[in-house]
């Protein structure tokens, strides 16, 4: 799959101090419509500039307003009945349209509050009367500039109040502004590979049958990119909902003191756009969440969930969420898709193909899409070692990016040493989440002895050993720690297997004979020759 160059210039606040420059006639709307609009925009996370008498009228008006317009991604012009009677407002419109002329990326949205667009277009009614008054005070050149700017504004698609309620009109404006800004709330890497199809599928699920309440589970091995995909989907879709929340690191947060209450408080704060909610206990939080979401179309992402108990305090709400709401869960535990009494849509994320892996690795190692001939074969070897895991490709690629020539080639001889143990640490989360020590032992035995063996053969061994659980193999499959290939043989990602070996090695880093498992012929012979055996493993390879 082709790479996605995800440079979000439209959302970059390093270029702009504000999302929106708000132009309006203060005497008409400052204390009512515009104030409510400003508040709604800010609550939606849209940073707004409004002068609110902060800019001193007089000689500095042009300089100060032009600076504010330049520092805004978008201008929102609220036309009211007496808008044109203010030379200040007309100057702002002229400056906005002049800025747009030289900066095509600047967005302008006209809002017709209590004036018909045709009056602005034809410059009749109150507007004609206002210009008549201006003709007595200002030069023709200035008036022509204003008229020209108004003609340009009216040619842009705008929003008209008509007879609808103001509250609904404001909601529609906020939604429209968000869509035009193409905002992103969550950071994702600037260079993504192999996510297009996954994101497209989840987007389709979000947009299909909006009347239903739906839950989706994004699952897969650790480091495969579940969180990145969830963030990308969230950024692309959150504007379609009344409110939204992305709860990250659910697994880690839930382990902290009062962790579930912390998650509930964060969720309620997000859904109320920053309001504070005191929660006494989990049950209290569940009730508050229920009422906060009862009549709202919400998008909620729970990232890195590994236990049903973490969900019940929040996702029992699935029974009463408003129609069209969507809940997305990212997890390494395949069993979570059946936690609820309603069906969940599963999106399983697979490792990248070799060509995609090479592309992603090369970007992080060399800041380009393909390696030079000098590094090509070594890069392919690293890619095979990483087994399609984006995390490993990114971490090792970044580690190698500071090396060149012979230093680079020496470093790749031990790729497992390049990441400082970070990859194994992240992968080990799935192993540590196993609740039963028998399942942990089974994982280590499979990693050391049974990869490539027929599943029927391994199941017979498991059933004959009292120290295994009969359901242990399925538990490991559900945690994405092992899999069964098309030939009915046990398989495991190479990095997971190395992680298992490392767990055993750490039992006795220097003395092989003190370890619980020996899986290399050479090590076995050395131990037997020295008779340095604590307790021999039940099998050798």
Description:
The chain is α/β, with parallel strands linked by helices. It has 4 domains: 3-181, Toll/interleukin-1 receptor homology (TIR) domain (Rossmann fold); 191-348, Rossmann fold; 354-420; 425-506, Arc Repressor Mutant, subunit A (Orthogonal Bundle). Helix content is 48%, strand content 12%. The chain contains 24 helices and 14 strands. The two termini are 39 Å apart.
Distance between the termini: 39 Å
Percentage of residues in helical conformation: 40-55%
Structural class: alpha/beta
CATH architecture annotation of the largest domain: 3-Layer(aba) Sandwich
Shape: elongated
- Total number of beta strands: 14
**Strand order of the main beta sheet, please?**
3-2-4-5-6
Fill in the keyword field for this structure.
single chain, 541 residues, alpha/beta, Rossmann fold, 4 domains, five-stranded parallel β-sheet, 24 helices, 12% strand, elongated, disordered N terminus, disordered C terminus
Short description:
The protein has 24 helices and 14 strands. The protein is α/β, with parallel strands linked by helices.
Summarize the helices and strands and which ones pair or pack.
Blueprint: E1 3-5, E2 18-23, H1 26-29, H2 33-43, E3 48-49, H3 61-70, E4 72-79, H4 87-102, E5 107-112, H5 117-122, H6 126-134, H7 140-154, E6 159-160, H8 166-181, E7 191-193, H9 196-207, E8 214-219, H10 226-237, E9 243-247, H11 250-255, H12 259-271, H13 282-293, E10 298-305, H14 308-315, E11 326-331, E12 345-348, H15 354-366, H16 373-386, H17 390-400, H18 405-411, H19 422-432, H20 437-450, H21 455-464, H22 472-478, E13 483-484, E14 490-491, H23 494-505, H24 521-530
